[in-house]
Write a structure and sequence with these properties.
By secondary structure, the protein is α/β, with parallel strands linked by helices. It has a single domain, classed as Thiamin diphosphate (ThDP)-binding fold, Pyr/PP domains (Rossmann fold). Strands 2-1-3-4-6-5-7-8 form an 8-stranded mixed sheet, sandwiched between helices. Strand 1, helix 3 and strand 2 form a beta-alpha-beta unit. The protein is globular.
Length: about 325
């Protein structure tokens, strides 16, 4: 990575032309739409974006309109990373032949299906081969575009159309897939998590990922009011609560060495600021059933698991 960290001000971001434009068809309060705009605020020059099928692809590219003010390609659920690898290889070939002199960044963007599940094999392969691109996962914790089905990124206890909460089963039984740990296991130079509430932290991490000479991975928390059955006005509040409850801590790993980012570091230094996960669950219709007397034990178990994961993260950061 570059030795000098990119510095910017709020004014710099405000005056920089938008590369993800307004006029898209995203729902009111859409977390991923904000994520797209912030990602593109961090670009450093000519950029090509390839995007897997999903909510953000659909709402931003309804023919004959587009919200992308850069070269942009839609690809299938399973091969956003493969597409990025091909673009990057073509750029290098053109540079070797002297047909292209400028540097061009490549960004692959995908949701749950294109990352946790259907697209994992191409992502793993592209990272193993060492292609130079940034992969951004916008995580709204379900297949929202096709009917709010559960995904590998859906958390335990959440009700979806394929894991409905009923008298026997209290929502999804399985745990959320540890996607960032899976990517870290590939030996990547840069892996990080972020939320749009802490937008400066997120934009900085996007730029760091672009500056890596090789693959980089950014996992961004992006609530979906429609799928979560939550208040459209509270999307950013949930991205803040996810950090404050340690359900989604923010950190980065450079060459495998983890360190907490400032919002989570504050909680580590002042544990009394850590909020209970029920504060995060409240107001989300997908977790409403957990507050019934027969399911309250599920919240207790999820709190235990969250505390356990937070403790492991602290230990990993301290040991490195």
């Amino acid at each position: 990575m570059t030795t000098q960290e990119w510095k910017f001000t709020s004014k710099d971001i405000a005056v920089k032309p938008d590369l993800f434009l307004s006029g898209h068809r995203a729902c009111a309060g859409c977390g991923p739409a904000t994520v797209m705009r912030l990602i593109m605020k961090a670009t450093r020059g000519p950029t090509i974006v390839t995007q897997a099928t999903g909510c953000m692809e659909v709402v931003s590219s309804i023919y004959p309109y587009t919200s992308w003010n850069v070269p942009w390609l839609h690809t299938a659920f399973e091969n956003a990373a493969a597409n990025a690898a091909g673009i990057e290889a073509a750029i290098k070939a053109m540079q070797r032949k002297g047909k292209l002199k400028e540097h061009i960044d490549v960004i692959a963007i995908a949701g749950d299906g294109g990352t946790f599940d259907i697209g994992l094999q191409s992502l793993s392969g592209a990272v193993e081969r060492g292609h130079d691109f940034l992969f951004v996962l916008y995580d709204n914790e379900g297949y929202m575009n096709t009917g709010i089905q559960r995904s590998g990124g859906t958390p335990s206890g959440a009700a979806t159309t394929t894991t409905p909460a009923g008298s026997v089963i209290p929502g999804k039984l399985e745990r959320k897939k540890p996607i960032t740990e899976i990517m870290l296991a590939h030996g990547m130079e840069y892996v990080a998590t972020a939320t749009p509430y802490y937008w400066k932290d997120m934009i900085t991490k996007v730029r760091k990922g672009l500056e890596v000479d090789g693959p980089a991975f950014l996992h961004v928390f992006a609530p979906c009011p429609r799928g979560w059955r939550s208040d459209q006005a509270k999307t950013m509040e949930y991205t803040k609560l996810a950090v404050e409850t340690c359900i989604f801590p923010v950190w980065e790993a450079v060459n495998g060495k983890k360190q907490l980012s400032t919002p989570s570091k504050v909680i580590a230094l002042a544990p009394q600021k850590k909020k209970p996960i029920k504060d995060y669950f409240k107001g989300q219709g997908r977790f409403r059933h957990l507050f019934t007397p027969k399911n309250i034990h599920v919240i207790d178990e999820l709190q235990r698991l969250t505390d356990e994961n937070w403790k492991k993260l602290l230990q990993n950061c301290e040991s490195k």
